[in-house]
Amino acid sequence: MKVALIQLAYGDGESVADRTARVADLVRAQAGHDLVVLPELWPAGGFDYTAWAERAEPVDGPVAQALAAAAKDARVTLHGGSIIERGDPVSAEDRGLWNTSLVFSPDGELVATYRKIHRFGFGEGEPSLLDAGEHLVVVDVPVADGGSVPVGLSTCYDLRFPELYRRLLDRGAEVFAIPAAWPRKRVAHWTLLGQARAVEDQCVVLQCNTAGTHAGHEMGGHSQVVDATGKVLAAAGLDEEVLSIDIDTAATPQWRRTFPVLPDRRLS
């Protein structure tokens, strides 16, 4: 499976429309990959809380339409990072706003959405502005040899909760795709936790972070690809960068057979 992680950099001076057009062009440039991944909340601003309600849109809104067209033009499965989704509240107490990941097929169809389950902010930020997701999502990503790879979806702060990844594992995931807006001051946690999730679940981890500085927050970059043994196969720096890598899809099940730790689980 050939994967591209687009570690996007942006600041406060770039409009959402200009950023969306730039991102769509970056996606089109990744033709030949099976899966392309973007960072969390790149249209709304990962820490630009005050703009979220204004920039919220439905899952078929302008940003989604631009991403769908780019995925179709490039003939890739596109994990579009995430948007602030506006929809009908699930209950009377809800706001109708979520941090929602969008996945598009090479035909430009929306094939999966994931509403972030763990909201960052310790009572402020996401918890005070957004509703929590409730459902786990694993999506099959087609690859060039005619097969497919099951990819579990999660977002940023989710990375700190290993039980989520155990459940994705139990649903068949062999790869975890994790878009993020993770700040530089905690980037050591970002890289360490990615390796931990790979080792404990014997899954490939794709971590696509944000670069640049926005809303007063310097972002951490350091996107990485970690194989199922915990080895870092590719890593980015602090600036905008595209990580492109071929992943051996046979290596994960082979490692699970060679070092069969998962069947020894006693607790669920």
From TrEMBL:
<dbReference type="GO" id="GO:0016787">
    <property type="term" value="F:hydrolase activity"/>
</dbReference>
<dbReference type="InterPro" id="IPR001110">
    <property type="entry name" value="UPF0012_CS"/>
</dbReference>
<comment type="similarity">
    <text>Belongs to the carbon-nitrogen hydrolase superfamily. NIT1/NIT2 family.</text>
</comment>
<feature type="domain" description="CN hydrolase">
    <location>
        <begin position="1"/>
        <end position="249"/>
    </location>
</feature>
<dbReference type="InterPro" id="IPR036526">
    <property type="entry name" value="C-N_Hydrolase_sf"/>
</dbReference>
<dbReference type="InterPro" id="IPR003010">
    <property type="entry name" value="C-N_Hydrolase"/>
</dbReference>
<dbReference type="Pfam" id="PF00795">
    <property type="entry name" value="CN_hydrolase"/>
</dbReference>
<protein>
    <submittedName>
        <fullName>Carbon-nitrogen family hydrolase</fullName>
    </submittedName>
</protein>
<keyword id="KW-0378">Hydrolase</keyword>
